[in-house]
Every structure is written in structure tokens, then in C-alpha cells.
Design brief:
2 domains; 6-stranded antiparallel beta sheet; 3 helices; DUF2993 domain-containing protein; DUF2993
Length: 220
């Protein structure tokens, strides 16, 4: 075998190893950075960048992230599924623990929240005392107490969940309180995605209610 062919074989092997290693190294950096935001179990991260040297400039075709039982600030998220495509980050800064986004690309994220998590989140906001959120495909039921003139008044509301006009927040529309239909539409903000301080500004595209779960899809 000629020296040229041997050199080519070695080069191919080296490129193949780097193509395998570099995206995994970048995925590990991304997982470490997410750990600064998400204080739950370590997320699963997969990075696609072909050829791998594009990634050395921070460019990538796709980053897929899955996190379960994520803890973002005071909100516990049952599951996060994220697909980020055709973006670019500052890789040197990421290696030092700082996420700098050079090109946002296209990001789609699905967040699944449970009624229990929403109850705990609302309790921490302090607007409703001892809140309890029930979620079903038919709508939302919110129970708790509010303070009126220093007196705790029981509250039992049922209604629908929609996104706000600017697509930044989850809005609860009570249709009835204590079984009595409301003559005027009332809004109660349950969650604003801007309060999560995510690396990219996102807007809510869709809200879906399931049994004891709220699934919202957001993107940039």
C-alpha cells in the first residue's frame, strides 16, 4: 500500500473520529450551560453539525434537548422538548460557561406543566392563598382563597386557558365563580414566559389541555 493511500486512510479515520467527538463535546457544553438555568436532572442534548468544523465556528444544523422534571426559577416543568435549528453560538464563550447567541435560527419548544406544579407556582406568587389547579381537556378549575379587607374569602373558578394578545402569557378566563356564570369576561394571568428569562425571547404558539397537564408550544 502506497504512503499516499495510507495517509488518506488515516485522514479519513481522524475526520470520522472528530465528526463523532466534536458534536458530543458541544452537546456536553450546552447541557452544562442549561444546568445554570434548569436545576433539575441533567437534560439530554444532541447536536447535529455536518461538517464538524462548522461547529468550531458555533454553527449547527440542529440541537435537540429533552429535560424532565426541570426546575426553572420557581416553576417546576414536567417535561421540555426543544428543537433549535440553523443557529449559531459563540463556542468559546460557551466553553467558559456563557451562552452568546450570534444567530437565533429557528427554535420550537414544547413545555408540559402539571396542575400540581401550577398550584405550587401560584402559591409562590402570593396572589391566591392555597391555590389548587385542576386541568382537564374541558378546561381549568382554580380553587383557593383571596384576601378582601383582611378576610380570607374562598374562591372556586372554572374556565378556559388561552394565550394573551401578545402571546407572552397564559391567561385563565373564568366563566363562572362558585357555580355562578360571570356576566363580564375576567382575565387571570397564570404564567408569563418572559419571567423564565430564557436565552431567546419566545412567544406562545399553542396551548393544549390534557388530563392534569398543560402543554404549550412556543417559538422565536
Amino acid at each position: 500500500m502506497s504512503r499516499v493511500i495510507q495517509t488518506l486512510i488515516i485522514l479519513v479515520v481522524v475526520v470520522a473520529v472528530l465528526q463523532w467527538f466534536v458534536p458530543r463535546w458541544a452537546a456536553d457544553l450546552v447541557a452544562n450551560e442549561l444546568g445554570r438555568i434548569d436545576h433539575g436532572p441533567r437534560p439530554s442534548v444532541a447536536v447535529t453539525a455536518v461538517p464538524f468544523w462548522d461547529l468550531l465556528q458555533g454553527r449547527f444544523q440542529d440541537i435537540r434537548i429533552t429535560a424532565k422534571q426541570a426546575q426553572v426559577r420557581s416553576l417546576q416543568i414536567h417535561q421540555i422538548r426543544m428543537n433549535w435549528s440553523n443557529g449559531q453560538v459563540a463556542l468559546a464563550a460557551l466553553a467558559k460557561g456563557r451562552l452568546g447567541i450570534r444567530r437565533p435560527g429557528h427554535l420550537v419548544m414544547t413545555i408540559v406543566l402539571t396542575g400540581t406544579a401550577m398550584s405550587r407556582f401560584l402559591a409562590k406568587t402570593g396572589s391566591i392563598v392555597r391555590p389548587h389547579v385542576d386541568v382537564s381537556p374541558q378546561g381549568i378549575r382554580l380553587q383557593g382563597e383571596i384576601q378582601l379587607a383582611g378576610t380570607a374569602v374562598p374562591l372556586d373558578m372554572a374556565g378556559s386557558l388561552v394565550k394573551s394578545a401578545n402571546s407572552q402569557a397564559l391567561i385563565f378566563h373564568p366563566h363562572q365563580i362558585d357555580g355562578v356564570a360571570l356576566p363580564v369576561l375576567t382575565n387571570v394571568q397564570l404564567l408569563n414566559v418572559a419571567s423564565l428569562h430564557l436565552p431567546l425571547p419566545l412567544t406562545i404558539d399553542r396551548v393544549r389541555l390534557e388530563r392534569n397537564q398543560i402543554a404549550l408550544t412556543a417559538g422565536n
